[in-house]
What we know:
The chain is an alpha/beta fold.
Amino acid sequence: MDAGAGAGSKAGGSGAVGRGLVLCADDFGLGEEIDEAILTLIAAGRLTATGCMVAGPRFAVDAPRLAPLAERADIGLHLTLTELAPLGEMPCFAPDGRPQRLGPVLARALTGRLVYAEIKAEIGRQVGRFREVFGRSPDFVDGHQHVHVLPVVRRALFAAFDDGTLDAAATWVRDCHEPVSAILRRGIEVPKTLLVSTLSAGMAREAAERGIRTNDGFRGVTAFATDQSYRANFRRFLEGAGRMPLAMCHPARPGGGEAVGDAIAGARHDEWAYFSGEAFPADLAAAGVRLTRLGRG
């Protein structure tokens, strides 16, 4: 069953009681199926944040439809350094201007081979593109494939706050760190989640030093399986502590306009089926969880 007009109250509206959870859909702007799912779910009260890929092929087309939903969900910048071409020249990072793969970018980040000036300039360009389209700063910044937590990239992101490109009063940052015990107890994609969490260590402290808000608790890493396991996984994401935890998701509404080369399209459809159906609000209620925006719940 598709998400309907009355789904907001079922999924946890502002008047609901219980533990708060920010539910953030990544990848707005990457493809028509993705954008349709996000727009529908926000309108139905089933998402409370989405991150925009400003270099994505659908961003300029679909952003005007997202802008009026700003009172329902946080709209942020989903920083891209992989899988999409950069907005400007990066002669060392992407000498041919083509999209980069995560593996080589991760290796270069961990061995100190990313050029800080290039990364900082690209962050500035993507913030600028967001402002051009929405007429304001992003509500938050995170990274596609978690690139914002990588060495050099993290430093450049915080420098954007230090030099006034971003304002801590307006923009929060996603923290992907979790306690090891929580990751092991959950038991979902443990090696990958541990890596992301380890790379994120200290991020909340660096943000707090600058007065930048962050989520407290992070969930949502999966294997992007298409075996109908998503509901069972998400019910485990609803467990655990945190003042304001965040769960990421990647839904797409089937029916045409699939993003070119999207390796996780099938998993996105499974997530759409869950979040647009009746099981999702039932699981929230059973777990005593309400959806909220960061700092507004």
